[in-house]
Amino acid sequence: MAGLELYIPAETVVEERDLVVPGDAILCDSSTIDLGVRAETVLAGRAVHIGGHIEAAGDCYLDADSHVDAELLVGRRAALGADVVAAGPLRCGGDVLRAATATVRDGVAATGTAVRRRPRPAALFAGTIFWHLLSGGTLAPPAPFVCPRGGEIGDARWRVDAPAVIGERCRLHGNIRATACRIGTDTTIFGSLTAPNGIELAPGVDIVGDVTAHDGTVRIDGDARVRGDVRCENLVVSKTAAVDGTMRATETVEVCSSTTGDPAE
Which residues have C-beta within 8 Å of that of residue 166, sequence separation ≥ 6? Predict the structure, then answer.
């Protein structure tokens, strides 16, 4: 499961301390989501910590040693691995399969059958990751949200030791830290961006914070706006972009009609 990027599909938002994903959510081993999660299907690896509730319209699979700090609301099927702990009740519109050592502190209510037998969500998890890798590491819509192994996501900070790809028309809160970052059109981020290997901002992006890529290139396309300072090695900026703070580049600065076009006259 190494080598996966943080992938945030189009129209993902954070609202009322919930991460709201338009499709499925894949949370890799040892990741921490300090928010509730609302998605179609939620698939969590081993030792994932979710600091809120889970609301899955479809299925929910939690691998061994995962923790959920509130209730689980599941539309179809739920599977809980060994030593999973849910601090709230589990409400499921279908079948529930859970290991004997899984704990649901406020009880289970299922429309279908509830069986105390160890599920195998890890196999399903590996299969989903395998599909991701077969796709060449770039997931086409409708793509799932992917948090890589050991990632930290919350209101204050999003930190991953991997590249981050953020889709169009997203609205996120928190300072984002990744090895590199690419952001799609009309996305708003209330927080700073730090990615040493480079940052790309598409037209219509609005960053309410600083943008820093000490060892890489920052590209600011179209009418993208940075409401803070920009610091990088190389800067390529559209003449229609807006930067409210200072711009510092240790190597080169290029002003273009667009970052893919010719230099501005």
Answer: 8, 172, 181, 182, 183, 184, 187, 189
- 243: alpha, beta or left, given left = phi > 0 and alpha = psi -120 to 50? beta
Residues 6+ apart with CB under 8 A from 20: 12, 13, 14, 38, 39
Task: With beta carbons less than 8 A apart as the criterion, state whether 180 and 161 touch.
Answer: no
Main-chain dihedrals φ then ψ at residue 222, nearest 5 degrees: 50, -130
Whole-Å CA distances, 34 to 11, 52, 131, 158: 20, 7, 27, 10
What is the C-alpha separation between 260 and 73, in angstroms, rounded? 46
pLDDT in tens, 36-82: 999 999 999 999 999 999 999 999 999 999 999 999 999 999 999 99
For the chain, the structural domain boundaries read: 6-134, 163-256
Task: Specify the pLDDT at position 124.
Answer: 55
CB proximity list for 106: less than 8 A, separation 6 or greater: 71, 87, 88, 89
Output the CA angle 4-6-12, nearest 5 degrees.
140
